[in-house]
Design brief:
Layout: E1 13-18, H1 25-31, E2 34-36, E3 39-42, E4 45-48, H2 54-62, E5 67-70, H3 74-87, E6 91-96, H4 104-112, E7 119-123, H5 128-143, H6 148-161, E8 163-167, H7 172-176, H8 182-189, E9 193-200, E10 203-211, H9 213-228, E11 233-239, H10 243-256, E12 260-267, H11 270-276, E13 281-287
Parallel strand pairs: 1-2, 1-6, 6-7, 11-12
Antiparallel strand pairs: 3-4, 3-5, 8-9, 8-13, 9-10, 11-13
Protein name: DegV family protein
Organism: Saccharothrix algeriensis
GO molecular function: lipid binding
């Protein structure tokens, strides 16, 4: 079920997102953000991804069980928007994963057409904590009374400026889900090459191929430092069943980046993990 804070002050702008934002539950609750869950299927079982533990998902993937994801039903968005309208908000900003990766924004738009208050659905053309930090920017603006145009501008600015760097042990899971081509999967596995990926034009795209996992992670850290530049940034490290690897990446980034407003370590959502596979680590660089 979606999470929402029904204690929102009447009249303000509410923020909704989907679970691919990878926002820690406590942060979403603190910000008063409603999170609508994507669906994960393991074999014949289909459930909200929040009810599919990553450990269970990882075991299923290693056992080569049939795993898939699906966008939320439009009804989940409809009832979330209805609850917010009943609480007295005057408008809703609904921020979602790239439509090149999921039909989630389409489901949100279908529900928005029936909502009792204006709903502004945004395809952020990204995913993970690049989406998550756009949600944080929007919710922070809404909390201080910004109107809907300013909330939208804050979200779009954050999403447009953020970059997503992704390390995966194998491209096989992305290939199975149709998120990256078979040729790239073959290149990624040749000669122990480990792929680094990014999100470009709303899609998962190859960035670099590096010999060996540790070298690939060091290369990802180097790229993240370059992308951060000399300005203030928010940094997130996301992982799928690789807490020690994520902590090592975070520690190295902490030592090399002098002006970070916010550091965050979080697990990927199960819907994201179903495409990246166990062992994946991502870094989000979000200029302030």
């Amino acid at each position: 079920m979606p999470r929402s804070d029904t204690r929102r002050p009447a009249g303000r702008v509410a923020v909704v997102t989907d679970s691919t934002a990878c926002l820690p539950a406590q942060l979403a609750e603190k910000l008063g953000v409603t999170v609508v869950q994507l669906q994960v299927r393991i074999g014949d079982r289909v459930d909200d991804e929040a009810r599919v533990p990553l450990a269970e998902l990882g075991e299923a993937m290693r056992d080569q069980l049939d795993v898939a994801t699906a966008p939320p039903d439009p009804g989940a968005f409809f009832w979330s928007y209805a609850d917010l309208a009943t609480s007295g908000v005057r408008a809703i900003v609904s921020l979602h994963v790239s439509t090149a990766l999921s039909r989630t924004a389409e489901a949100a738009r279908e529900a928005a057409a029936q909502a009792r208050v204006p709903v502004h659905v945004v395809d952020t053309r990204t995913c993970g904590m690049s989406l998550g930090y756009a949600v944080v920017a929007a919710a922070t603006a809404a909390a201080v009374g910004a109107d809907v145009d300013r909330v939208l501008a804050a979200a779009r600015r954050s999403a447009d400026r953020s970059s997503e760097l992704i390390y995966v042990d194998t491209l096989e899971y992305l290939r199975r889900g149709g998120r990256i081509g078979a040729a790239a999967a073959l290149l990624g596995s040749a000669l122990s090459m480990k792929p680094l990926l990014t999100v470009a034009d709303g899609r998962i795209a190859p960035l670099e191929k590096v010999l060996g996992g540790e070298r690939a992670l060091r290369k990802m850290i180097d790229i993240a430092v370059r992308r951060a530049g000399g300005g203030q940034v928010d940094i997130a490290v996301e992982h799928f069943g690789a807490p020690e690897r994520a902590r090592s990446v975070l520690d190295q980034l902490r030592s090399r980046l002098p002006d970070v407003r916010r550091f965050l370590v979080t697990q990927v959502s199960s819907a994201v993990g179903a495409h990246l596979g166990p062992g994946a680590v991502g870094v989000t660089v979000s200029p302030v």
